[in-house]
Amino acid sequence: MGILHKLQVAFTIHVNLILLILPTISSSQEHMKTIGSHTSIKENKHKPSPKLQFEITLHGFLLWASMGFLMPIGILTIRMSKRQEFGRRLKIIFYAHAILQMLAVLLATAGAILSVKNFSNAFNNYHQRIGLALYGIIWLQVLVGFLRPQRGSKGRSVWILVHWLIGTAVSLLGVLNIYTGLQAYHDKTSRSIRLWTIIFTVQISSIVFFYLFQDKWVYIQKQGMTMCNEPPRISCQEIPADDKEKVLKAESC
Q1: Residue 192 covered by a domain
Q2: What's the structural domain count of the chain?
Q3: Domain of 184: which CATH number?
Q4: Tell me, what DSSP letter sits at residue 191?
Q5: 236: which DSSP letter?
Q6: Boundaries of each Cytochrome b561 domain copy (predicted)?
Q7: How far apart are CA 129 and CA 222, in angstroms?
């Protein structure tokens, strides 16, 4: 009887312990489920929907096509006008520059409208602040372009300086905003931007190289033309002895 009584007591203790532990386990499991649900809700909040992700991608493509492609190509085009003084070719270069710049402005405006319409613009990061300043400067450049004075007028030199300064600011801010946009895209979608950053860096480096090489190429061509057009020089040894005195007298005169 003593042994049976002890077994009953031990069994009762074990049952009571199990009954005490089960609510704790179930409550901890419910707590873990609650934490997991909150985490998934947060992840779903931060993860953009397919529609929003498409709009972000479209916004980035429009700004790249505007600031990263058309605007630099338009600058390279107008640099070619330095070789032309007048004529039909100069007009073609000018109109090509104007068309490329206007297309760049229109695409940038479309990207801005898409951003204002679909994105939360709190202007609490560098990408949005630079973008706001960039859109204002772009349209200022358009206004300055329409106020272009004629060649030979008094304000022509001042206009060229202002147009060049604003254009340089637009180019620098545009390139910088593309890099900050890629970083913002990575923060929003958690996708890798390494490949796009490398491609864009190679593209901009190539454009800068051609921009700097244009003036050097003109200089190289002029040097070759100068050397070809120079008359051949005659050394003193090739001049007859009787004519050396005449040459020396002519040089002294």
Answers
A1: yes
A2: 1
A3: 1.20.120.1770
A4: -
A5: G
A6: 18-221
A7: 45
Q: At what angle do helices 194-229 and 71-79 cross, to 10 degrees?
A: 0
If you search the block for the tokens 């489920």, which residue do you land on? Answer: 33
pTM score, whole prediction: 0.65
Which pLDDT value is given to residue 184?
87
Mean pLDDT of 3-11: 49
Task: Give me the domain span that covers residue 189.
Answer: 50-221
In a domain, 92, yes or no: yes
DSSP per position, 48-98: PPHHHHHHHHHHHHHHIIIIIIIHHHHHHHHHGGGG--SSHHHHHHHHHHH
Neighbours of 104 (CB within 10 A): 24
DSSP annotation of 233 reads P
What pLDDT is stored for residue 230 in this prediction?
52
Of 74, 70, 78, 163, whose CA–CA distance to 108 is shortest?
70
| 193 within a domain of the structure (yes/no) | yes
Give the span between the Cα atoms of 116 and 128, in whole angstroms: 10
For residue range 213-243, what is the model confidence (pLDDT) as tens digits? 877 776 777 776 555 555 555 555 555 555 5
Instruction: Give 192-217 pLDDT, tens digit per residue.
Output: 899 999 999 999 999 989 888 877 77
- Is 218 within 8 Å of 82 (Cβ atoms)? yes
Kindly state whether residue 239 falls inside one of the protein's structural domains: no
